[in-house]
Amino acid sequence: MDFINSFTKSGKPVRDLSRISALLNALGNPQNDLKFIHIAGTNGKGSTAQMFYEVLSCAGVKAGLFTSPYIKDYTDRIRFMGSNITYAELMPLCKRVESCAVGKDYSQFEITMAVAFLFYKAVGAEVVVLETGLGGMLDCTNVIRNPLLCVVTSISYDHMTVLGDTIEEISAQKAGIIKDGAPVILAYDNPAEAVEVVKKRAFESGSELVFPKREDVFIPSDMLFGGDFFYKGKKYELTMSGSHQVTNAVNVIEGADVLKKHFDISDNDVMNGIKKAAIIGRTEIIRKSPLVILDGCHNEGGIKALSEVLKSVDKPVAIVGMLKDKNAQKALLPIVPLCKKFIAVSGFHPNAYTSLELKNILVSLRADAVTGESAISEYRKAVSGIYSNAVIFGSLYLVSHIKNS
Fold first, then answer.
1. % of the chain at pLDDT higher than 70
2. What is the dihedral of CA 246, 249, 254, 258, to 10 degrees?
3. CATH of the domain at 312
4. Closest CA to 80 of 38, 139, 122
5. C-alpha–C-alpha distance, residues 305 and 289, integer Å
6. What is the mean pLDDT of residues 286-305?
7. Which among 212, 219, 268, 220 has a CA at the least distance from the CA of 244?
């Protein structure tokens, strides 16, 4: 961990993939001996990846899962056949990467991915579900060749300083993962501008594009506690909360059809995998009565999805903390009318808004807002039932801070 933490979160800015390519080349290019399902998007990547992983596991496929960021432990990011990489496995791989990683320009993400590729090759992974870190085109995961499947989840505004100021620019970065001839699944809830960009990229790459139809989806309930939904007349069940998870599940259903060319995946494997999938801090129900929801949503699209969930809930007290690289004013706007009161918190990340800064943003949106105590203290109040209903949201770092308290 000292070695990994000697690198910054973002590393030196990149204009191409030459840096990660040089590192992997020095390591013998382990990625070239692996198969991948590559996932990009603004929201839904982690949930989609988890569902794919569970479906593959139910089918008996030796699958790996590479995600970010971690919530409880660093090793959460590198999973294989239901377990995290162990520190005993991690140490020699870190030493090997250290011997090839010249200088400190690399990001922690790049170093972690290099370790993961070595690990997955060593354990004989039949496929790796690979989640991008940021964007797609210039994301270090895009060094892979010939993925079995590319998936583009919901696209909205986030990381604009890196990815661009418009949906078209952001979409072009996400669509950059599409490789020549690799099938592509595109989430049905994307804006028209994103759809056009992804369609164009798929056409230019000679890639089959699967774009599910919203009218093929029927959601009979509010999905607050998960539940049944129908796609193309077939019934599926979700454990994860929120109708936005249906969008992710449909990506997986369509993706599994593509993967049946490579693996023995049954319809029951798909149904069981989707039902089994659960992920910390994604509209996580901490308590049912009074209701307490914990959600790491941190951008406009994610908070809008949480807002849809809250429409079926008596107005909760909202405990919120966000990072300064987010447009909090724009992202918080749709959730303000759905909460009776906001408690702004900080102290969970060096780049977080102070509680006073966040409170002032909320007040400017005409919310009833106050500064709170520490994030942990306010979370414990919510869990103790002091509020009739409560939602804690605004950052995955906030979720991690709470989960590790």
1. 99
2. 170
3. 3.90.190.20
4. 122
5. 22
6. 93
7. 219
pLDDT-based confidence at residue 405 (cuts at 50, 70, 90): confident
Q: Please give the structure tokens belonging to residue 90.
A: 């991690």
Q: How far apart are CA 139 and CA 131, in angstroms?
A: 10
Phi first, then psi: what are they for 90, rounded to 5°? Answer: -70, -40
Q: CB-based burial of residue 69 (10 Å sphere; 0-12 exposed, 13-18 middle, 19+ buried)?
A: middle
Q: Which domain holds residue 358?
A: 284-403
Among 276, 294, 319, give the residue marking a domain's end. 276
Tens-place pLDDT, residues 346-365: 999 999 999 999 999 999 99
Q: Are strands 184-186 and 209-210 parallel, antiparallel or unpaired?
A: parallel
- 378 and 361 in a single domain? The answer is yes
Half-sphere exposure for 78 (CA within 13 Å, toward CB): 22
Task: Yes or no: say if 49 and 39 are a contact pair by the CB < 8 Å rule.
Answer: yes
What would the pLDDT profile of 110-134 be if each residue is shown by its tens digit? 999 999 999 999 999 999 999 999 8
193: Cα separation from own chain's centroid: 22
The candidate with the shortest Cα–Cα distance to 24, out of 132, 145, 129, is: 145
Q: What is the mean pLDDT of the chain?
A: 95
Contact 248, 39 (CB under 8 A): no
Strand partners of residue 293? 285, 391
Tokens of 215: 């009218």
pLDDT at 159: 64
What pLDDT does residue 67 have? 96
Q: What is the 3-state secondary structure (H, E, C) of 32-89?
A: HHCCEEEEECCECHHHHHHHHHHHHHHCCCCEEEECCCCCCCHHHHEEECCEECCHHH
Residue 160 has pLDDT above 80, yes or no: no
Question: What is the total count of domains within the chain?
Answer: 2
> Do residues 255 and 322 share a domain?
no
- Compute the distance between CA of residue 367 and CA of residue 361 in angstroms, rounded to an integer: 9
Residues 223 and 357 in one domain: no
